[in-house]
Design a protein that fits this description.
heterodimer, A: mainly alpha, 5 helices, about 65% helix, B: mainly alpha, two-stranded antiparallel ribbon, 8 helices
Amino acid sequence: MNSRTRLAVSAIVAAYGVLVIVVNARNGFLPTTFTTDWVLFGGSTDFPGDFGRNVFGGSIAFGVLLLVMAVVVWLVAGRRVALPIGLAAIAFSVLLLALYRSSGNLLAARPGVTAVLAAVGVFLAASALAHRAEST
Amino acid sequence: MGASGCFDGDMAPDGQLKTEPATRTDRLLPAALRITAGLLWLSNVGWKTPPGFGRSDDGCSGLCSFVEVGIDDAVIPPWSWVLENLVSPNLTAFGYLTLAMEFLLAVLLLSGTFTRAAAVVGFAQSIAIGLTVANAEGEWYWSYLLMAALHVAVFATAAGRYYGVDALLRQQRGLPRWLEAAT
């Protein structure tokens, strides 16, 4: 895995995390209920309103988690340690999805943002497998 | 994500023309199609809300109301029979299945993992949704045909091999044939 790929994925995840933080900034740091006071995408339109709420609906804490994942991608993608971290991210995403209710869940994470965390986990796990293939 | 190998239309040892895209644009466009399909599922998975999936004492909304629409405004009678006799009585189980499937589609298409398999599932889900709601008031039936077509395009271009996890997976030697086909 070259450093350009790691940097590109890391930058995308970080930018997405920042947007999640901004969009949900009025809901406190660690809420368990979904925000109704959106910083962006508060309009009653299908697009960008509904689309934005579904794609970025989370919390500041979840955005911070994504920023941490961005750093992790930059530091460990393509190494052996990326496999357990990636699998842990996938497992945590599944837990968030299982706890999803109309009022909220742990970290107020809608399935959209949860899917992005799982996708980052899949990338990390696959990067570790690719590393193993390169070194054999 | 990971970049794939690049051939300029040269010949493989078996005499077949290698058809890997040569230019950056040719590789970016399939990836853009794939990510668009991923965002489609990502932005729609959220309103399938457990545990009732729209069914409550007050009536029917959300996923429940779409199932009712499919029964009342049938596209083809056998499908409305399925909705009435299999899906509606088991709405909770069906709702969890839908939530899990659409969540998985978003994850796989965004990351470019097992993209061709995901495209087949996405195609089937698009047709199922179309058969359920295409005749409902205010719906444009072409939306669902275009959704299905989008997944055909993702499958045809094997879009996970460009800037996707499939490119990483395909670096592995001795990949099982079914896994190779899924990517």
